[in-house]
Amino acid sequence: MSDTLSLFRTFVRVVEAGSFTAVAEEMNTSQPTISRQVAALEDHLGCLLLQRTTRALVLTDDGRTFYEAALTALDAATQAESAVGRLRGHATGRLRLAVPGVFGRLHVIPRLPAFLERHPEIEVDLVMHDRFTDLIEEGIDLALRVGPVKDSGLVARTVGVSRRSVLAAPSYLERYGAPAHPSDLQAHRCIMYSGLAAGRVWGFEGPEGHLDVPISGQFSVDNTEGVRAAVLEGMGIGYVPIWHFVDNEIESGRLALLLSDYEATPLPISAVYPSRRYLAPKVRAAIDYFAAEFRADPKLSPAAR
Question: What is the model's pLDDT at position 82?
Answer without folding.
Answer: 54
